[in-house]
User: What shape does this take?
Amino acid sequence: MAKSTRKKAEIWLIGSTEDHFSYAKLPTRGQVLKVLFNFHTLRNQSLDDSVKETAAMVLPIWERARIPTKARNHVWDRLRHLHKEWQNLKKSISRTSETEDGKREAFKDSLEDLFDIAHSDAMTIIKIEEDRQFLKAQRERGRRGSMAGIDVKLSKQETRVAARSAALAERMERYRASTAAAATEVSVLEKSSEEEASSSSSEKEPEPSTSAWPPKRRRGTISVVTRDVAAALDRTKTSSRKASHILTALAVSNLCAAPAGELIISPSAIHRARKDSRAALAAEIHESFDPKVPLTIHWDGKIMPDATGTGRGCVDRLPIMVSGKEVTKLLAIPKLQSGTAAVMSDACLVEIRRWGLEDRIVAMCFDTTASNTGCKGGVCIRLETELGKDLLNLACRHHISEIVLEKVFSLHDSARSPKLELFVHFRDFWPQIDQTKYRTAMEDKDAVQHITEIRDNVISFALQQLSTDHYRDDYKELLELTVIFLGGIPPKGIKFRYPGAVHRARWMARAIYAIKMWLFRDQYPIQQRQSSERASRTSYSQKVWNHLVRVSLFVTTIYVKYWFTCVSPKEAPRNDLEFLKAIHTYQDKEVSQVASTAFSRHLWYLSETLVGLSLFDDSVTVNEKQRMVYNMQNNQGSDDPPKRIPPIHDPLTKALPDFVSTSTSKIFRILGLDDSFLERDPQQWESEQSYNEAKDIISALRVTNDLAEKGVALMQTFNEALVRNEEEKQFVLQMVEYHRDKFPKALKGINYDE
Assistant: This one.
């Protein structure tokens, strides 16, 4: 029997078991395993019980060394892991190879190392340098140093701290007892006063003992930061400290249902409540967003200050949004390492997959930059490749329009400085201008001949556009200036706005400033700011005015109408062809040439695929639709049609059916639409359910990237506001979007309970 016990006590690779630790040093891996097997093998305890018993013996040794340790459950995990390591080696006990022998030797060598269960921040938590040095020495090979007897000085110090804590607890107990006694006496007096009303007025309530511990400030119990309150604070960029001042003022003004003392309105409490509300709302939005319609993805990069990083530089931000029928959603505005096509496409794919929209994305709306449209590695190509399907390439028609206007304006101003100096001068001169003294194009004999035939048509169009809502004031200002320039009167009368931004990136500044400067040309003497001879001053001045009137005439007669009609997807092919023809026949041949060249590089919507949008255009005649259907069946197209067509040398000879081929039906496959209505005559399409359903989907497509520009504006507004953490920043953006959708206007009478 004794022989069996001794054999059982010998553990492979470890040696004999032990039932205690030495208190001179912290335990090694081998010592811990010996004690563990003492419980598990000799005493026949389960592994979990053995682990807990061993941990109960190890932890006091570390406590005696005054070294903070991991939590008890983490110590258990470390013990189980150590046992598992030994167990894995024992599985190959019968194997003899150089590799297995090396593993066993390495394990045996590690048994002399410290069984380290110190807290991850132990070196920071330990206040006594001697204790820190002891831990460092124990972690070395050989484990230098050992624990001596009790530190008398430190022991006395701890005794004094404990005595003070006990005295404090005793005083608190006396205070609670005196408070309870006072409350009891008050209740007795109140009862007595009810029975003897005549003598109650002379009775006084006893005061609590002044020697008792002072009472703590009572905390509030009612939270005032609901989800909508938190969203409103975020939307208005109100900090938690400012919110505390506002809510406190409301509480003390008795405008709240509860007393001020009952409300939780400290800055820290408001901050925590807002943080929790953001995270909860973002999770709820992500979980509930499940659109059942085809979606278009939008993105637009922007360089902004890095408000969430450690540095003070700039960083690329990429607003990523989706749109569809009755759907407009911000996915995220991530911070990118760079603005390359690979990085942007990866960011878009991450958000598409995170929101589970791989099957819903059918189109892309983007600015026509090289990083987006590059044929070898642009974002569009990368997205189609990664998603494994063809997508509609809906190039932003506003961005294309900006390119055309920039080329026309550059006929005179070829400078590349960020600001347009000519406009800066005019803005500075504006306070000296008499706004009642202006001259329209109808008062200039050279300009009149350009506008006589189309003047009434353009004014009617501009007035009709002014009757609708425009989310940007500069759109409205351009329409009003167009009416004034052509000699008309806007619905709200003639008035001029103060000149705004003049940065070169603000494309509409070119149109607005050109018209406005030409209207006040008699009051703005450009030549007075020149320093050269009079002859050159007069010559330069004449060039400026000639240039401004050329830009103004182009904008008012052709450009404005195209700009405000290019948002319609089903009218896009027809509008592009008509705009190309109008440019081609424009009287100013130099302007016609540069505008036509610029626009011909961006004929996306006359491609074999996207020309199919015009099948749903009510302005296209039945005869044209019949020819389009015929060409879809008989005009053989390419297997891989180009995204945009090459320049058209003679657009006057072209009609929409000329661009249609068998490849046009590809648009129905991409969007998942039923094209059975094509078998009927176009006169009967309106009565076909398949046609009406397809028309609704087509009409919901966005062919301008204004949505991404809204995302840029949102990020610019909140980039350096409220929070610095990147994840929190994304939560704030989701919350602001939620509040803007729910309460688009701050009007009296809004039901916040809906």
About this structure: The chain is about 50% helix and 5% strand.
